[in-house]
Design brief:
The chain is an alpha/beta fold and 354 residues long. The chain contains twelve helices and 14 strands.
C-alpha cells in the first residue's frame, strides 16, 4: 500500500510494512452507519489495530454495534470515551456538519483522528482543524481510500504515459435509497443543507480528489447543480478548467449510471471502469497497446493498514503533507458550491456540539 503522492518517507514506510513489533492502534468509533460497520469489520482483519469502543448519541445503538462486533466498550458520551484513556484514536463517521466539531474535541483530548469524507464542511474548517492537529502534534487523516490505494497508484502510472492530456470525464452516480424520502418532501441527513449534505460532498468529492492530485487546482471551476427546495444539490456536473485541459465531473444521488473515470491524451486514454472509488478494472489504451488491470476490492483495508503503519513510524511530516492535498480539495469544493449557490449552515457559523 503506497501513498500516491511522491514523498521520500514512502520508502521508509514500505521497508517497515509487515513488521509485527509495532504498538496496536486502539480506536473508538463515533456513529453507527454502514460505513462505521465496514470500518470495524475491516479493522478486525488488520494486525496491530483494533476498535475497542463504540459511541453513539443513543446508548442502545452503541451497545448493539459493540455486541455485534465483540467490541469491548460502548458510550453515548463522546467526551467520556475520549477521557477514559483506553483509546488513542477516534474514527468519526457522524453527519457531515459535525465532522469539524467532533474532530476538534478529539484533538483537544490529545487523540489522533480519522475523519470520514468529506473532511469538513468547508475550507475554513479544514484549515482550523489541520492547524490544531499540528499544534498538538497529533495525527489527522481523511478517510479517502484513493489516498492510500496501490491500485490508484497504478492508474496514475498509466496516466503519466499519456501525452498532451486534453479531456477528463468522470461519473460517480448512484441513486440513494433516501431519495424516495425527498420525493415525499422529507429531508434525510444526506440531503439536508443544514447537515452539509448533497451530491458534490458525498460522491463527486471522490472525482475532485483524483483531479486535484493528478493536475492540481483548476484555473476556473463551475458547478451546474440540480437542486431541491432546501437548496441542496441532488445531482450536478462540475466543470474544472486548466490551462491546457478540461475536466467534467458528474455525480448524482437522484439517478444512476455506469461509473467511470477517464483521461484522454493524444496518444490514447486510460479509464477506471466502475469509477474512481469502486473501480473494477483499469483499461489502458496507449499507442494502441491495450492493457486490462484488474482491481482488488481492498480499498478500506489499504487505508487502515497505511494509517496504522504511518502512526507507528511516527511520521507526522507525511501525515501533514497528505493534509495539504485535502486542504486543496476543500478549497475547490468551496469554489464549486459558491458557483452553484449551495450554502451550508456551517459556512455562516461554527456548528457546536454539546
Amino acid at each position: 500500500w503506497i501513498y500516491p503522492f511522491s514523498f521520500s518517507s514512502c520508502r521508509q514506510w514500505f521497508n517497515c510494512c509487515g513488521q509485527n513489533d509495532s504498538e496496536s492502534m486502539k480506536i473508538g468509533t463515533l456513529g453507527t452507519s454502514q460505513i462505521t460497520q465496514q470500518f470495524i469489520e475491516t479493522t478486525q482483519q488488520v494486525a496491530n489495530c483494533m476498535v475497542i469502543a463504540c459511541c453513539s448519541r443513543e446508548l442502545s445503538k452503541a451497545k448493539e454495534l459493540a455486541e455485534r462486533f465483540n467490541v469491548e466498550d460502548f458510550y453515548n458520551d463522546f467526551d467520556q470515551m475520549c477521557k477514559d484513556g483506553k483509546i488513542d484514536t477516534v474514527y468519526i463517521a457522524c453527519p457531515n456538519h459535525y465532522h469539524y466539531s467532533y474532530a476538534k474535541k478529539a484533538l483537544l483530548h490529545n487523540l489522533n483522528v480519522i475523519v470520514e469524507k468529506p473532511f469538513t464542511s468547508n475550507y475554513t474548517e479544514a484549515c482550523k482543524l489541520i492547524e490544531l492537529a499540528k499544534s498538538k502534534k497529533k495525527y489527522l487523516f481523511e478517510a479517502m481510500p484513493i489516498l492510500y490505494s496501490k491500485e490508484y497508484k497504478q492508474f496514475k502510472k498509466y496516466v503519466s504515459e499519456l501525452q498532451d492530456i486534453k479531456i477528463i470525464n468522470a461519473n460517480y452516480s448512484q441513486r440513494s435509497r433516501k431519495y424516495d424520502e425527498v420525493l415525499v418532501n422529507k429531508i434525510p441527513n444526506s440531503f439536508d443543507i443544514k447537515q452539509s449534505g448533497g451530491a458534490l460532498m458525498d460522491l463527486n468529492i471522490y472525482n475532485i480528489h483524483a483531479l486535484v492530485d493528478l493536475f492540481g487546482e483548476p484555473k476556473e471551476c463551475f458547478y451546474h447543480a440540480n437542486k431541491i427546495e432546501n437548496g441542496i444539490d441532488t445531482s450536478g456536473i462540475a466543470i474544472l478548467s486548466y490551462e491546457d485541459k478540461q475536466a467534467v465531473c458528474t455525480a448524482a444521488k437522484d439517478s444512476t449510471s455506469p461509473n467511470y473515470f477517464e483521461v484522454q491524451g493524444n496518444n490514447g486514454y486510460v479509464n477506471i471502469i466502475g469509477g474512481i472509488n469502486f473501480g473494477e478494472t483499469i483499461f489502458s489504451s496507449i499507442h494502441k497497446e491495450e492493457i486490462l488491470y484488474t482491481l482488488k476490492q481492498e480499498r478500506l483495508k489499504n487505508e487502515i493498514v497505511y494509517i496504522n503503519e504511518l502512526v507507528n513510524l511516527n511520521d507526522l511530516e507525511m501525515c501533514y503533507s497528505i493534509l495539504e492535498h485535502t486542504k486543496k480539495v476543500m478549497k475547490v469544493c468551496d469554489r464549486l458550491r459558491d458557483s452553484a449557490g449551495v450554502e451550508f449552515n456551517a459556512d455562516k457559523e461554527e456548528i457546536y456540539i454539546f
